[in-house]
Automatic annotation (TrEMBL):
GO terms for molecular function: identical protein binding; ornithine aminotransferase activity; pyridoxal phosphate binding. Its cofactor is pyridoxal 5'-phosphate. Pathway: Amino-acid biosynthesis; L-proline biosynthesis; L-glutamate 5-semialdehyde from L-ornithine: step 1/1. It is an enzyme of class 2 (transferase). GO terms for biological process: L-proline biosynthetic process. Its EC number is 2.6.1.13. It comes from the Bacteria. Belongs to the class-III pyridoxal-phosphate-dependent aminotransferase family. The keyword Ribosomal protein does not apply. This is ornithine aminotransferase. Gene3D superfamilies: Aspartate Aminotransferase, domain 1, Type I PLP-dependent aspartate aminotransferase-like (Major domain).
Amino acid sequence: MAAAAAPGTGRLAPNYAPLPVTIATADGSWVTDTAGRRYLDLLAGYSALNFGHRHPALVAAAHDQLDRVTLTSRAFTHDLLDPFAEALCGLVGPSVAGGAAESMMVPMNTGAEAVETAIKAARKWGASRGITSPTIIVAENNFHGRTTTLVSFSTDDDARAGYGPFTPGFRVVPFGDAAAVEAAIDSSTVAVLMEPIQGEAGVIVPAPGFWPSLRALCDDAGILLIADEVQSGLGRTGTTLACDLWNVRPDLVVLGKALGGGIVPVSAVVGRSDVLGVFTPGTHGSTFGGNPLACAVGLAVVDLLSTGDLQERASTLGDHLQARLDDLVTEELLVDVRGAGLWAGIDVDPAWGTGKQVCLALLRRGVLAKDTHGSTLRLAPPLTISVEDLDHGLDQLRDVLAEDG
Ligand code: PMP
């Protein structure tokens, strides 16, 4: 039997089950629904809205660009493409192997496309070294996107069911287990691809030694370390990249979500020029990747992160967030809390109800959050949220857990 259609016209394919709120306008950390009711946004588009809704600098950059040129395709170039590449490599280059001087970027649109781009780069780089049947090591409970290749190595049955045949060439190991990675590396291995902190899995933070071990293993084996920072990157963890938490410099970094400031889809792979240099004309691309509007917003996003102030703010406010959530564990209102910076995964006592029920109770109190699975919720407020708003949201969470169960 077909799944129940979401409320609405019935014209939307039922591949989502949104919470019952219809957003009409938004500003900063707040959204307003069609009935004029305001909600505090503690999800921030799964980290796509790191700078809040309609950040003035990003809106101004987009408006300005709308009056100039919006699309050229890559058949031609335009005046913001090189500046965007230069700026992004300036921001992220120091955090990738080779450093800023040796980094380059491939502009794409969505996170999934950029992960696909990193996989293609790794395979082609392997082919150039004589590896004709390459494998890439990935983690259990990964989330990298929804394309056929990316769900080929998902360990989530719902994400895979009915979509085969799948793309071969991936080997799955437990997340956080360096010995398992070591055991999985053989002469066919070209790369290890993982999220530094697993987002969709419930903000799973590995032990501090895990990513340094991955770096060492990849160096020893002469293979690529690829960090999918689509959700964790661009300030979320209190550092520019999550990998900066451990001073690990991957060979390739995948960025998306916040790179478009919540205004346009912008993604990119940034990394070693000798690896991304495998893409020669005609071997990879995208009509919209690196379009003028995307570059204008992307440049403004890089500018917002260039002083380090927002990362600093995410770190300080993040400490406050984690401390308040730890208090809820002490009060036995939460079972577990994990996180880094302004990003937290929280486990509700299943006796209280499901994560979705908590989200519905929060919604009634004017707070937006989203469950990920079972009794786990993710909180990822805008990095620009005021401490008063953050406290207000956490007060509501506390009251929900203490009173509404
Ligand atoms: N990688 C990670 C780590 C993600 O969290 C996501 C989206 N949740 C993606 C890739 C896919 O991004 P998109 O939805 O833009 O394709």
